[in-house]
Amino acid sequence: MIRLVAALLIGAIFGVGLVVSGMTLPTKVVGFLDVFGQWDPALAFVMVGAIGVHMATRSLVLRRTRPVLSEEFPGASPAGIDLKLLVGASLFGLGWGLAGYCPGPAIVSVGVGGDAAMVFVGTMVAGMAVARVVMARTAA
Question: How do residues 84-129 score in pLDDT, each as one tens digit?
C-alpha cells in the first residue's frame, strides 16, 4: 500500500512539474523542436534542470545499500541497441514532433480536458495494443 501511495504522490508531483515547465503545451514543444525556425529554448532549460536534479539525486540514492521501497536496485538492461529500440525511439520522436506531446505530458493534458491530448493518448494506447500483438506473434 505504501508503494502505491508513494507512486501516486510522485506521479502527482511529476504532473505538476510538467504543467509548470510548459511540457503540456504542444506549441511550446514544437517551438523547441523547430531548430531552424522560431526556436524556443525554454524546454532546453527544463531538460538541463531535470538532468541536474537526476545526477545529484542518483549519487545520493546509490550510496544506499538498497532502495527504500524495494528489495534491490534494478540492473541495467543487457539488450543494447536493437531494431525494437530504434523503431520505438523513432515512433516516439515522430509522435513528439508531429503532435507536440510525449506520453507523460499527454496523460496530464487528458486530465485537464485537452481534446488533442485525448486523441493522442487514444492512438498511443491503440499503438501499444498493436505492438503487443505483433510482439506476441513474432515471439511464437
Answer: 889 889 988 888 888 888 888 888 888 877 788 899 999 989 989 9
Which pTM does this prediction carry? 0.72
Q: Is 2 helix (H, G, I), strand (E, B) or coil?
A: helix
Contact partners, residue 118, CB within 8 Å, separation at least 6: 110
Strands (E), 47-115: none
Contact yes or no for 120/126 (Cβ under 8 A):
no
Report helix, strand or coil for 44.
helix
Q: Tell me which residue of 89, 79, 139, 92 sits closest to 120, measured CA to CA.
A: 92
Domain boundaries, the chain: 2-139
